[in-house]
Every structure is written in C-alpha cells, then in structure tokens.
Amino acid sequence: MRIRIVDAFTDRPFAGNPAGVLLLDTDTFPDADRLQRIAAEVNLSETAFAHPLPEGAEADWALRWFTPATEVKMCGHATLATAHVLRTTGAATGTVRFATLSGVLSTTADDSGTITLDFPASQLTPLDVAQGAAGAAADALGVRILSVHHTTPYIDHLFVEVADETTVRTLSPDLAALAQTGHRGCIVTAAAEDPARGYDFVSRVFAPAVGIDEDPVTGSAHTALAPFWSARLGRTELTGFQASARGGLVRTALRGDRTLLTGTAVTVIDGELLA
C-alpha cells in the first residue's frame, strides 16, 4: 500500500502541517482498528485514507481522517494533502468531492497547484470565561483571556481570544490540564500586530486530548477563525498565520455558511506500507 507524507499549507518542504495520505484501490475502507493502527504508526497529527466511489455516488472519493489516537470528523490540512496527491498523481483534476463525516466537502485545484477547500463555517457560542471548561482552559493557558467560545458542530474546540500576537506566540500551556476540559482542542487567537506582514490574524491550536500537543497548521480551525475575524475586521477575505514552530498561511473567504480555505502543499516522502 502506497503512503505519502505531504506538508500542507506551505510551498516548501519541512514547513506547514505534515499529513499521511493513503489512496486505497478498494471500494471500501479496511476496519477502523487497522486504520487507527496505521495512523498511530505514522504518528502525525492526521493521516488521511481515501478510496474512489462509483459513478453516480454523491461524491468522487470517500475520505476519513485519524490522529494517532482517534478518528476525527473534520480535518483541513489532510484534505488539502489528499487533494494535492490526487492532482500530482493524475488520479483527479479540477474539483473533487469527498464523502466525509462532515458531509460532502469539495476541493478545487488550479493549474499552479493552489488548492481551495470548501468547508462548512463553524458556529461560535460565547462562554463565561470564569466557569466550566472555559475557566479550566483559561487556567491552563495562564494568560489574560478576552473571550471564549465553543465551536460547533464538527470541530468541538474551545476558541480563545487573547490580547495580542505576542501572547499567542509565547504561550506555554499546561497541556495535561487542557486535555481535561472535555473538548477536542483549544484554538488561541489574536489580531495581527502588523497586517503589512501579509496576515490579518494569528493562531495556535492545542489538542492533547486527541494525541496532538500542538497542531502545526489547522485548516479546520480556520472554519471558526474566518467568521470570527471577518466579523471583527469587516472583510470576508482574510489571511491567517498559524504561529507554530513550523508555521503556515491559510487564506480564508466566507461564502454564506461556507468557508473557503486556500493553500498549497508539497510531497516530501513517497513510499510503501509493508505491513
């Protein structure tokens, strides 16, 4: 079985967010336990598995995503990585529809290799900073919090706004405490200090509850970041920078209840899974 490692939301190797991608030549998935064991062996934030669907189906490919610890309902960077592999191998071109746990998601690749994901926009519900999971997250982050929201229905993250970009970049959270909040992860964000640098907001994403201490560049988080910052900044098209050690840019555009996420990807490893 062929396996590729693809760096997503970057135009150069060893940056962005790496994802495992396995294109299956079967018409069904192996059992979930096998997929989970492969994802644990790959040990990246997500590994994507896809197989083609028959003509006339609701989508072109079926797609699932696994962290080293669990299956997830939505993953942006591994979807981008899968679309990149389909394009670069000639398995699919243009727009590709994927049947997923988040419904039918589509990706569109242009001739340059830039890929746009069409995802549902997340809903944000305000929470009391001092109570429950929001209070626990605030304590775990150890910084002053401006607001906390819960993101639904697909990514189940706490969404935390802090004072400035420097606070985001220098965070050193208590990961064990974050894992006990009862949510998949925590998005921390602030406005860019200098939009002339090419981005409008910054973020970091921590998800120790699902085996990811810090996710390098999280496409799905931008389904919440885009509507939040578009409302604040008064523009429907923005660029976010995820300020992890690897870093990456995500261009976002709101289209009603959908969020378009645009980026590029690079294949860095192409090999065979022997087991």
Automatic annotation (TrEMBL):
InterPro entries: Phenazine_PhzF-like (IPR003719). The keyword DNA damage does not apply. Transmembrane segments: none annotated. GO terms for cellular component: cytoplasm. SUPFAM superfamilies: Diaminopimelate epimerase-like. Keywords: Isomerase. One of its GO terms (molecular function) is isomerase activity. The keyword Kinase does not apply. The active site is at E46. Belongs to the PhzF family. This is Putative oxidoreductase. It comes from Streptomyces bingchenggensis (strain BCW-1).
